[in-house]
Amino acid sequence: MLSPVKALLSLLLVMFTFGSPFALAEEQQAEQKQTAANPWKQVRERNGVTVFNRRIPGIAFKEFMAETVVEADLHTLIAVFNDAPAGVEWVENVDEMRQLDQLSENETITYTYSKAPWPVSDRDAVVHNRITQDPRTLAVTIQQRGVPEHIAKVKGAVRVPSLSSSWIFTPQDDGTTHVRYQVLTNPGGNLPAWLINAVSVSQPYKTLRGLQEIVLLEQYQNVEIAFIENGQGK
Question: Which of 11, 141, 167, 191 is most buried per CB count within 10 Å?
């Protein structure tokens, strides 16, 4: 059973898995500068999943990034992400995930709830999701942001107030897809940063391992996503 400290961290990383500010061009440029100034350090490589972290000036908590390659095309991956209730099957430490609203073919609002052992409070999050595709490389980005005021707070749960993460799917020439998951979190409270940084590698690792497995299920094969161009990278 997870300790309360590990549970809290895992819960918050889960929320950040499905929430982030929109990645605009200037933000991408800032990310390139950040990487040049603060290079990533590899902290785990196992079962085809590599996890990195780095320190950000002025922030006590480390930023994490995980990468893998999955045996799936873009349509399969988007079908998995669009199946919100299935999130409990592959996202580490999620107890409920559901879609609240369909705003357009590529925009939704979803709700995520995660239980925690006492004395850690349960967490929930409300997230606006937007999927875009680069017409040149065919890379798909899931851009998301927390919208905590979209629905009333749930009794007994702490609503996550802000979120920051991104998912990028880049198709490969052999039919597989490279997946990149990046997250920077601040769990708040009095938990020391050194402890959070020490135990937060496993959540992105286990989540990507779950993604590797769920994309192989039959219900996600041969699915057509109208607004996504499938195929090999260009």
Answer: 11
